[in-house]
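Worked Example 4.2. Consider the chain below.
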Amino acid sequence: MKVPGLVPLFFAVLLAPDASCASGADAQAAPWSLDSCFGSYGRAQVSFDVLGNKGKSTNVVAHGPRIFEPSYAELEFAQVFSKDTGFDAKVLVTLALFDPVAHYSGLFGDQGWAVRNLYVETGGFIPALPGLRAWAGSRMYRGDDIYLLDWWPLDSLNTIGGGLILGHGGLDLRLHVGVNRLDDDYQFQEIQVPRTGFGSTGMVLLDRQRIIASLRAGYTMEGIGQSPVGLKLILYGEYHGLPAGQRIPPDLLDTDTPIYPPEGIMEELPADRGFVLGAQVGLFGFGEASHLNLFFRFSRGVAAYGEAGVPFGTTGAGTAEGAQEVLGALSLGWQSRWVGLLVGGYLRRFNDADVNRYDTDDFTEGAIVGRLLVFATDHFQQGLELSYQQHFPFGLDERTDTHLVPGVFQLTVMEILGLGRGLWDRPQIRLYYTLSVPNHAARMLYPQGDRRNPGAVEHLFYLGAEWWFNSSTY
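Applying the procedure from the previous section yields the following structure tokens:
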């Protein structure tokens, strides 16, 4: 998305006198108070191998250790309107910059920008229910993450829609309905046809959006009995639905012969649906900045492929009916004055919708990663991270007619300069060395001669930074 014209505007807002998360003085004469706030999450990282070339990721699973993550940044702008009646409204805009950054691509006028949040949230419109809030717009809608994997295993949606949030005591209820649509022949197709008189015009043949509804019920107990340990319980569900449609088969569009009129060659795309059921159990308060979260998620039908997934291995009727994913995951964080510990991991089984349960589209995979940090001083941390990941397909590799099970062991030594002692204190500057040992099957994932194909042992170096402040989404 090209939005270079927005960048000067956003920075003009950022540099305005009242854009410092405090009440604006010019709003005192208005019938409401006005608060402006700028926040950001970001990371910028460069990598090397021993020859000085770009360091390559050796992850073989969908959610591997985040040490290989690309550069990324979010600029967040919030404006909060508050009235003495108790009503408030927040406008939130999040602008995201994707890798590669201009210094790596040379495309200073054509970087990968996108608007990730664009919504209004209100509260206090029913005095009897002060904890009730409503929102509408485009939103990243997330729960708890696994930091070491940079992943939200239970609830992570990106839709245009709206929802209600009710908080009362330790109870947290959330209802959301939204849509998304891919610019892909699975959901949208447009062809060029002759225009009356001369020239051509676009003809939309397929335009179907995915409807996603989610319901989340959570309860948080700040202390169990006399103990400072708190408890969090969450039940979660999603519904996914796609209407039927028609399209020209994509392989026919790859020919040089114009297809007009399209009648007689149209392919029927049946309606499809799916659901997600999940739960989370968490403990917190057993140490400074501590948490332990256990996640379970079961997905079926089109929902098993993810909110933006295009189904593969479909039924004879062309639907995702019967596809399923079963997922278990954990996240642990604990720290004292001198040390900190982070652990993350998951185990996932996926089966596509076709009847063949012994092909490479059906698999089990998982990853486990642990990071130990020693807070040597108030601003220097010495870290060590160990991880193992494996992808186990149920079928034989088509090239070798053998069963290949990719696996990777990784060890990373970390030198970190940061704001303070703690797992979550940011900003940080980090220097990493990673020893990565992929097995033979992992090295077979790329064609011979592919620059990304790792060796039997990889030595990788990373220099980068990470920060977050005043951010609603992290």
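The longest strand covers residues 33-48. Confidence is low (pLDDT under 50) at residues 1-6, 11-20, 22-28. Compare this with Example 4.1 before moving on.
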